[in-house]
Design goal:
The structure holds 2 protein chains of 2 kinds. Chain A has 9 helices and 21 strands. Chain A is α/β, with parallel strands linked by helices. Chain A has 3 domains: about 50 residues, Roll (SH3 type barrels); about 190 residues, L-asparaginase, N-terminal domain (Rossmann fold, 3-Layer(aba) Sandwich), CATH 3.40.50.1170; about 120 residues, Rossmann fold (3-Layer(aba) Sandwich), CATH 3.40.50.40. In chain A, helix 2 packs across helix 3. Chain A is globular, with a radius of gyration of 25 Å. Chain B is α+β, with helices and mostly antiparallel strands. Chain B contains 21 helices and 23 strands. The chains are: A alpha/beta, B alpha+beta. Chains A and B meet through strand 3 and strand 4 of A and strand 2, strand 5, strand 6, strand 7 and strand 22 of B.
Chain lengths: ~425, ~625
Amino acid sequence: MAKAGDLVEIVTKDKKYRGILMPKPEILKSNSIVIKLDSGYNVGIDKKKIKKIKVIKKAKPKKEKKKKIKQNKKLPTVSILSTGGTISSKVDYTTGGTYASLTAEDFVELEPKLLKFANIRAKRILQLMSEDVNPDDWIKIAKEIYRELNKKDVTGVVVTHGTDTLHYTASILSFMFPKLSKPIVLVGAQRSTDRGSSDTFMNLICSVISATQNIGEVLVCMHATPNDDFCYLHRATKVRKMHTSRRDAFRSINQFPIAKVFPDGRIEILVDYKKPDEKTELDVKIDKKVALVYVYPGMDPKILDYYAKKKYHGIVLMGTGLGHVPTNGKLSLIPKIKSMIKKGIAVCITSQCLYGRTHEFVYSNLRKLESVGAIFCEDMLPETAYTKLMFVLGKTRKLEKVKELMQKNLRGEINKTLSVKMFMN
Amino acid sequence: MDYKKIGLKCGLEIHQQLDTHKLFCSCPSILRDDSPHFEVRRKLKALAGELGKVDVAAKAEEKREKTYIYQGYNDTTCLVELDEEPPHKLNEEALEIALQIALLLNMKPFDEIQIMRKTVVDGSNTSGFQRTALIAEDGYIETSQGKVRVNMIALEEDSARRISETPNSVTFRLDRLGIPLVELRTEPDIFTPQMAKEAAERIGLLMRMTGKVKRGIGTIRQDVNISIKGGTRVEIKGVQDLREIPKMIDLEIERQQNLIEISKKLKQRKPRFEKKFYDIKKIFEKTNSNLIKKAIEREDDIIAVKVSGFNGLLKKKIQGEKHLARDIVEYVKHFTGLRGFIHSDELPNYGISENEVFQIRKFLGCKNEDAFAFVIAERELAEKALSHLIDRCQQYLRGVPKDVRDVSDDGTTRFLRPMPGAARMYPETDEIPVPISKELLKKIKVPPTPEERLKRFKKWGLSDDLAKQILHSPELVTFEELVAKFKNISPTIIAATLVSTRDEIRRRYDLDTSAIEKHHFEETFELLNKGKIAKEAIVEILAHLAAKPQMTAEEVMKKLKLQKISIRELRKIISKVLEENEKLAKEKQFGILMGFVMRKVRGRIDGEIVANELKKKLKN
């Protein structure tokens, strides 16, 4: 039986083909067998036409030679924890999918320049595309980071992560580390590492550089522009993926990026940041019974019944404009919200505008919403409000206390002064 | 030359742009010369391919660590060209055109095609690879000297256009990136330069039969693979003019023959190459050479290397006036950017004395058969350059180096890059395989061959000449459409109008005709077809449209009063002219009177009819 990787000869009624047998990704229903010709091209041959497949040469398993990395005592040490995603995706030519086995050596092989800035230690802690990352994974990631940060020689931790939900993970980590003595830098990639044009290389270098800095915050490090010239360091509670595919998809919202990081090691600080605490504290107690719900015209208020019935403890609504929900008429959400709050469910209001602050008094409809006890979340991103509510409900279920904490700036998630240039930049 | 005796073998690689939107996005396939709207700066990395090997050519490019600058336009380039968005679905029209070409070349399509990423690290693709798919194989064409097998056709995206270069950066324009191309490769079945030209012409003509390939400079590029007995397959890129192919092949034969001779001589000398580099500044302490003096003032290093076995060979001419040292310079320049070196075969010269040459030889331990070379530069760069120089010399010992070469206007060639290996392809995971189903193949209409078309055109009454002219004309497909549409017009008139009106307008009215488009022809023929104008009015109407392309043919007709007149109206006009010119009429001055009448009816009725009517009238 011919296996993927074998050199084969395929005989059909019309002609003979010679090439290396390629595996097919399972999701593709196909009537063809794919081989790689000498020219390097892959082509498919209709299975029905095939008379015979002869193995000419069995595939030899690849022996991977790995170079040992020398430690440079003059340099700081950075731990890279990989969780999956595009940044650790390589095309797997045996399954057609993507895979990752990222050891420190792999990272260094991927980008040898990392060794100019730090000794690299690496560990794979998860292997997930970020759409599959859930709150239990956040806890695991936080614990692994904590372990690394407690190592004396480690100056900072880099977490490689899929980009889709990277900002959720980043913001919950901010809350899970009430005190932080070293930087935690989350990094992803928008182009897979198997291509020469990948943004991985610069993002990795810049994130490692950032992890050697004297900063006591959780940060996101990604391309600042479509150019390969520098990355932005974003505050984890104020950043959001704003484009499906661009390298500079991550944008600070209602906040300036903290710094520009250049791949040659330079850092240009743009705004104030938190200096490191003396010790790192970990607090992974979160309440997972929290939902994030988008408000829209025509929304059936009964949708909210589901969360009440399922005994949710908190819900973040992405309202319209300043934080509106349908208030008058048949589709008013107000009665439902009122009854939820009566049941002790925390109802938080953010805006689907993303940019700008919510406000509880500008319009009478907002006042109605406020008067029933909804918690307006200032200029907080809906995703950050969602992770923060989980964290806050992990401390207290008392709505008054919840309100106080939600409206208090814990990790830079609330910005009291929105400047003109913080919009669409 | 007896090409058989020297074992000439040539193969062609032809790239032809297709006339449709881009292959993986909806941007139009147009090149622009106005200033670009934005620039993006990128770096590229050489990575291991599917089988774990980093391609030689790819690695060679990355060594140079360049910044690539991409220029784009807000309205005709998008995020796909910028590599900021995954490719859209493969352009189906382009696939259909490629299949048409494949079938015209008697090729067999694969059952399923897979879009591949072909690693390209010269920066000409923002992604770092070129997307390409093998469509069909095993075809052939006929030439007067025999069959040439066409072994593959691929559909791929064109690369970005190189605009300028500095030592540290290359600027590309994104307008060309992504234009659909078909790439055709023949087997090395070509054994004379004339046959190469004929095969290239034939393939070009067959591709044009689809009516969907781009025409004009830069839309088709021919590469020629050449080898002779004892030589190596060398790829020569970017031949623009087919007429240059035979000369270029002859020059490459000359180059390979000379390199074979050099290799033979070297093998006798048994050279031992060493990458040992020496600083020879000391030898020049009292030099009279201004070149060297200036270098010393600049505090440049002067680094030399022994080139074992090469004495007398560096100045040997290998192609036209080009000597071997020049070939090495081009090679070294590719890897280091360094523009030149000085070698023993050209010394004494540049004020460097015989004694200094002797001193250098002694210092490097050169024997009689050895040459030396030195570079004036900063030490690290100099050593890098000399290391590449020795690499190249080792290649000459083995024979003709496996190069990809670039052709100059005079037909000589220069080193472009090493021959790429096969490790540079892996699947494009952003696209799914495309089945070439029976249904799809049934849908593909194979265009008639040139021979079928010529036959048809002659049946339509075209002369041999005109039939051939229209066959090779960019207006071929328009011609056939218009013939089908306008049954009352003779195909000869349509063909003649399409092939020669533009020239005539340029000549007669000194007008730029580029504004005349297909619909202008169509409207004009519409008027002729309905009998509203005489065929004599065609040129005048089109000339007016060339200047005012926004008008319709009918508007021009009315404005210039070119409506066709009836014979009755003509007779009235003739009568009037004769009345006004009684004397001439009596004298039966046909020529002058014809002139007067024509002045009134020009373009509105056939001149022959006018002459007949006037003659009749004068007889009375």
